[in-house]
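Next comes this protein.

***
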Amino acid sequence: MHKILTFLFACFLLIFSSQLVLASTTSLGSDAHCDKPWFYKFDFDGQAVSIEHCGRTDSGSMDYTITSVGAGELLVYYEASNATIRLKVNGKSYTQSVSGKGVWRSGVKVAVGDKISLLADMKDTPFSGWTSPKDQMCNGFFGAGSLNVSGLYSAINNDGNKLLSAQCWGDGYAHEKILKENRSKPNVTISCSGSAKDCRDTLIEDMDFNDGAFFLAVDERIPHASSCDDLRITRGNNSRVPAKLTFVAKASDNLGSIKAYRFTFGDGATVETTHSEIDHTYESSGSFDAFVEVKDSKDNWLKSDKCQVVAKVAPTSIESHKSACSYLQIVSGQNSQAPALVKFKVAGYDNKGDIKAYRIDYGDGNKVESTTNNFEYNYAKPGTYKVKAEVKDSTDTWRSDSKCEQTVYVSTEPIKEQPSTGTPTWMSIVGLTGGALAFAYPFIEGTKNMNKSLRKKGKR
């Protein structure tokens, strides 16, 4: 029984693992295509072919290709003689002359949704077109030749990159040669969706698709780097209340786009938007500590000292006294392991004077008062702490607000040793094996214990 259970479980684990591998290897970007291609389909003595034109058109422009692969650096693996690779990524052009077999690391970062076009220019006139390899071969027609591209597939796989598009390009002379030397009157049926000039030239163009192979690939192993870089007030600063100010944030992400901006204006108002520029109207005069946080392409919220600015609003003679605690910000240390050093910033405003003092309750019984608004505190034990802040205005009144409350989370240390029971916990196995054995180990141990129990009962 023990052997049968072990065998069945091994089969299950093998199938489960193979499914994981299959999922990882089939998550490649879809084959490249044109936004607005033109095609011609023909039957040349029994050889049915559809050719997609993604290259030059009558106006010399290039069509686009849309990628669905993950973010990374765009590469071109090639095998050709004296070709010029022309890339266009989101409207920007890049060119590289190549010869032989190799890889061009373009240095261009791409992500999901970017538009890409590729033209393999081998000085064809007037057109260039491409087809996909079949059985890892770029084949010409009726003796025009062939090119084995299995080496390009292997190179991409060995380098650990992801294939986006495999393309066979032709020099446009093979059919003309065949007509002159091999067949005086071949049987050709043509269907063309291009212009009159496109369709007229199909009889002598793009019949030899073995002159060059160009494979688009993406290297996703580039380290992700993102940051909040700047926050400025471009209009309205120092104007009188009610004052409309324009804030402009700048952020960067090397593998994608900034998804969102969260502006905190220092008067109690906070706005989340997809726009980097935003207007805000202050209904009270004073100095306001404003800042912005940005969400990068990996959904991380980022903050920075560079993304803070002081907004100033001039008073009017009829304005009544207003003061408040604007916000309590956790600058760093959130979700850290105990002992955790957590840093805070408290902000408030007063339209008739200055904030005199700041007070913070760390949520563990300790309170601190200071004339500066930056605090740091060392949480010795893990737990959840409700932190509250107050500001003392120009009339010596302490002001508090729900916006000046935050929850700090301090976690425990990770498990470093196996428990005395000898059976690792689920989380410790997940950390060691990536999850596959997390299911396997308790099952195996449970089976062993059950078999031991059955054997003991059988001996009685």
